[in-house]
Amino acid sequence: MSETCISNSFPITVHFGGGAELLFNKIKKHDLILPQKQEAWTIRALISWLKDNLLTDKPELFVQGESVRPGILVLVNDQDWELLGELNYHLKENDHVLFISTLHGG
User: Fold this and answer.
1) What are the residue ranges of helices labelled H in the chain?
2) In sequence order, what DSSP letters do the residues of 2-52 get, joined into one string?
3) What does the alpha-carbon distance between residue 23 and residue 51 come to, in Å, rounded to a whole number?
4) In this prediction, what percent of the chain has a pLDDT beyond 70?
5) Second label for 29, Cα 20 to 30 Å away, from 46, 64, 73, 75?
6) Which of 50-72 are b and which e, b meaning 16 or more Cβ less than 10 Å from the residue's Cβ?
């Protein structure tokens, strides 16, 4: 079983769907090695890192404050993040995080 990674860099996979991938250079899947940090990686920290490092277009369509914008579903290993502590969930090695936009323009 994977342990929460506190000080070493570690791999995770991030997927974007429902149009959210358009904000990330139209790439749906990103295999990432998160950099070393003193404290545990959380979804909150991941969202900030994604905004600063991968987001290529219209940040206001992905982030709102420290979280994702309403209308973006977040799943961690196929579980709704609301069941896992949302922003405070501690990422683990090889987690799969999926961001799905439910908002569609017209």
Assistant:
1) 43-53
2) PPBPSSS-EEEEEEEETTGGGGTTT--EEEEEEPP-SSPPBHHHHHHHHHH
3) 10
4) 89
5) 64
6) beeebbeeeeebbbeeeebeeeb
Give the amino acid at 35. P
Which pLDDT does position 79 carry in this prediction? 97
Q: Output the six-digit token pair for 37.
A: 């940090």
DSSP β-ladder status, 79-80 and 72-76: antiparallel
Average pLDDT over residues 14-41: 93
Yes or no: say if 5 and 92 are a contact pair by the CB < 8 Å rule: yes
**Tokens 């579903």 belong to residue:** 73
Q: Give CA–CA dist 106/95, Å, rounded.
A: 34
- Mean pLDDT value across residues 19-41: 92
| pLDDT band at residue 105 under the 50/70/90 scheme | low
- Contact between residue 36 and residue 8 where contact means Cβ atoms under 8 Å apart: yes
